[in-house]
Amino acid sequence: MLLTKTSTSRCLGIAFSFAALALPMLVSCGSVNTVSTRTDKATTSIPFHTQVNDALLEIFLKAKDVRLMRTPGGVMKAQVDVANDGFRTRSFGYQFEWMDETGTVVSSQLNNWNQAQVYSGGEVMITAVAPTPECTDFRLKVRENK
Amino acid sequence: MPSTMQTALSHISLASSRLAPSRTLALVFVCGAAALASVGCGSPAKRIETGGPESITTVTQVDDQDIMGATNQMLSSLLELGVLKQTEQKPAVLLIDRITNDTTSDFPIDNLVYAMREQLVNSGQAAVNTTYGANPESKLAQDEAKLDQFETGERVRIKNDFALTGRITEVRRAAGNVRQATFTFRLTLTATSGPRKGLEVWTKQAQFTKQGTKASVGF
User: Does B90 touch chain A (CB under 8 A)?
Assistant: First the structure.
């Protein structure tokens, strides 16, 4: 089927109209708008390294900040802000593994998988507490739920 | 109907009796291959990580991952607040009191309690008194302690610091085919010694809400 110049431009016009209508709808569908009173990173923020094996997860789910602090109970506590830059609510599983000063993973009942959900455009804070006061570092595994 | 079936069956048997041996063999092979294929279509048994991302998630039952999630939250709260470190004797001595399952889901509460005990006892942060009361966890250990007491004439009493109680409840709702269940795990520590004896010194609740029409594999 051949398209004339007029029909082509009309088709393009319709496509643009659809896109103009659909895009904001996609973005606004279940999205979260966040307001924060803090612009600087927390004083307990620490540098972190992310190894990405799932490119899609990297595109939409990002660790924005990682904080590590000692609790009144004497054990370390980690807080990780996970942001969702995608257009839909994402559900993911995560697992913290704690390590002592030598880098040895300390096996415990706190090493199990947990689940969290983050709305489009929003952030969720996932936390974990170390099993013993000797644990000083952790690694976090994230896996998106299909 | 039976007569038609019999006719059909007789036709098949007649047809097969007329087939040449090579064609019969081919038919057997085809049938065999089909049978093997049908067996291979099902999901073969495999071991998965308990409570891991490949576990089955139901809507109205308490699953492994719910119990493990509750364990994680309870332990995290206990360790973070350092409740067990606030006692005179170290490690703190726990009594495991009544923990009731008020849900319609049948699951062993021990899965929750023992996971917590494993973490707290094995890391030296608490000790559990298993010889207390009329129905102790270890009757033999209690008998041994009683025998020692009889022989020496000295009454040795284990000083208990806390009693652990709890309750697990559920709230169910439905909208059309979609069902939803919220399971709430609640645990409480009551001091059994010290200045706060008889008072609640720690409590924590962990909630899990599940929604859907049927069970699925994965979180």
Answer: no
